[in-house]
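Progress note, sequence design subtask.
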């Protein structure tokens, strides 16, 4: 009888006798299942009631992406223009290409939105985004970069569930859906192989097209990182690179041509079409990475401290570093283990470059701007770069850390037993504290019968709008935005939360608000500060003009809104009539006093 029993698989066969493809499928299924389970755990509180709960850290973007998913449903089921929506910000509309509309996700998911509701689509895409990104990196790592499935799993786990990804899961479907990126990266790297220029270039171009319709910002990060990687690798190994750089460049050229053909019109529409804009509504130095955040923990990490994270981040959705000191130590160890790998060194250089870029034009430490200039100041106002929230460049560094961890873990079996043990203990100490907690949610007020039972149809005909007060804007009017999205955009609304020109044609700088109108400003200030304005004849005339501009049919005061009674008094004075009580809301029927313009 042997001294050591053979390890048997579930069929009773020795593990060594199990065919390699079967072992690979088992490993793949295990990786996918584990990633899905963790993603569900992160979103579990939203899964409990997708339509009745809102992500508490980012209810504004939660509302916008619900609108984007509802737009995708209208594209498939109603034949709406995929590049433009006339349902929000009436009469100007919304340039969907100039916003993160995620048409590559919203349109395929339209049947889910149509039959199960926009709330289910949002939480499903957030879940699949986290798990899909992790599994995509696992797939590429396990097939092409590492031998060990365990190493690939570790790399995928970090790439899909690092603090940066979990923080963006607070509503940012576009940033957690990075499952195309690993394949773009791999296709670019394969262009150096003989005979890959045409076939590989075409595949690369099609992947780029797909990523554009998921998120262009992530594509920009990927392109910048690959550029930094290629330059670094060429500098480290020019003797090797000069043997294939021509076919590499030829493949890139094929990829560019392949992508440009289907993207030419959508990109033209994005940058020159109606409601297009240039620049962001903030200076590049506003949202940057704080140096001390590298050693801290994010608020949604197991070891996270909300007070510390709040001081070191620009918002709960932008905790793009927050690695913790143990992970930084492990990263140094990993770099030592893989130092002989030129590609790993070049990747580390690229990650460092993007990390420095994420720190903006001057170094910030502990919440204070030090005045120490950084290289990003030289390119801060370059077109396209000026459209980026700077701290997000650090998401690249986060991904590269995952790749370096996978490469190091793959190298561990060659070490002595003691060093292997030290590495795995160090990995546990580094990874466990940053594992995610479930994202917090708040319970939203139920839809009033006026919306839920579609009583609004008796008032709002095609070509007219339903005006909710507070008006939907960035940080205000969230209930009205939610009503609109959950209704499937069946009625149209003025204003809203989106990116568009600040005050066209005088000012085309990007803004989160629709162009200013006198009535919206009056109501916004009164609602924010609870102060009764002196309503003049001029204000009443402006209200009629603005309601005509918005093509209003009915004005609805959101129940339970702050300073509700004050807003009711102001609206009654502006409109010259008392409200009606219909379907759980107070409303003013304005069809008899305003005439839609245009």
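Output:
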């Amino acid at each position: 009888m042997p001294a050591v029993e053979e390890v048997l698989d579930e069929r009773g066969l020795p593990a060594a006798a199990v065919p390699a493809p079967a072992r690979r499928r088992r490993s793949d299924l295990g990786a996918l299942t584990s990633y899905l389970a963790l993603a569900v755990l992160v979103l579990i509180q939203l899964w409990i009631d997708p339509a009745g709960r809102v992500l508490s850290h980012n209810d504004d973007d939660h509302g916008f992406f619900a609108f984007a998913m509802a737009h995708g449903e209208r594209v498939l089921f109603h034949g709406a223009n995929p590049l433009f929506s006339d349902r929000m910000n009436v009469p100007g509309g919304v340039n969907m290409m100039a916003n993160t509309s995620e048409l590559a996700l919203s349109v395929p998911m339209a049947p889910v939105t149509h039959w199960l509701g926009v709330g289910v689509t949002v939480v499903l895409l957030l879940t699949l985004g986290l798990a899909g990104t992790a599994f995509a990196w696992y797939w590429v790592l396990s097939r092409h970069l590492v031998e060990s499935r365990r190493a690939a799993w570790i790399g995928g786990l970090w790439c899909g569930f690092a603090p940066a990804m979990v923080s963006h899961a607070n509503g940012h479907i576009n940033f957690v859906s990075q499952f195309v990126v690993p394949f773009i990266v791999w296709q670019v790297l394969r262009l150096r192989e003989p005979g890959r220029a045409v076939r590989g270039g075409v595949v690369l171009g099609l992947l780029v097209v797909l990523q554009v319709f998921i998120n262009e910002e992530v594509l920009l990060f990927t392109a910048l990182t690959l550029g930094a990687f290629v330059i670094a690798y060429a500098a480290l190994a020019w003797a090797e690179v000069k043997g294939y750089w021509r076919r590499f460049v030829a493949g890139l050229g094929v990829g560019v041509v392949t992508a440009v053909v289907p993207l030419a019109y959508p990109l033209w529409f994005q940058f020159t079409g109606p409601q297009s804009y240039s620049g962001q509504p903030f200076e590049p130095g506003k949202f940057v990475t704080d140096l001390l955040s590298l050693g801290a923990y994010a608020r949604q990490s197991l070891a996270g401290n909300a007070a510390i994270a709040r001081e070191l981040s620009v918002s709960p959705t932008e905790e793009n570093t927050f690695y913790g000191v143990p992970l930084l130590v492990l990263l140094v160890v990993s770099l030592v283990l893989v130092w002989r790998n030129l590609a790993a060194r070049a990747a580390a250089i690229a990650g460092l470059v993007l990390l420095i870029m994420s720190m903006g034009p001057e170094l910030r430490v502990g919440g204070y701007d030090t005045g120490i200039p950084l290289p990003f100041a030289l390119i801060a106002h370059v077109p396209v770069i000026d459209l980026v929230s700077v701290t997000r460049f650090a998401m690249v560094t986060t991904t590269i850390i995952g790749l370096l961890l996978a490469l190091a873990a793959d190298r561990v079996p060659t070490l002595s037993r003691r060093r292997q043990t030290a590495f795995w203990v160090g990995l546990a100490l580094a990874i466990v504290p940053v594992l995610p907690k479930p994202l917090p949610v708040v319970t939203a007020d139920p839809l009033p019968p006026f919306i839920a039972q579609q009583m609004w149809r008796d008032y709002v005909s095609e070509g007219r709008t339903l005006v909710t007060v507070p008006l939907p804007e960035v940080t205000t009017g969230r209930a009205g935005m939610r009503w609109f999205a959950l209704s499937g955009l069946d009625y149209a609304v003025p204003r809203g939360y989106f990116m568009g020109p600040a005050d066209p044609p005088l000012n085309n700088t990007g803004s989160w608000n629709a162009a200013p109108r006198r009535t919206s400003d009056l109501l916004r200030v009164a609602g924010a500060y609870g102060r009764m304005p002196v309503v003049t004849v001029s204000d009443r005339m402006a209200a009629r003009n603005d309601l005509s501009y918005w093509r209003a049919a009915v004005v609805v005061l959101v129940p339970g809104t702050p300073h509700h009674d004050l807003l009711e008094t102001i609206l009654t004075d502006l409109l010259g009539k008392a409200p009606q009580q219909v379907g759980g809301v107070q409303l003013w029927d304005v069809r008899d006093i305003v005439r839609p313009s245009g």
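The longest strand covers residues 368-373. Work on this subtask will continue into the next period as scheduled.
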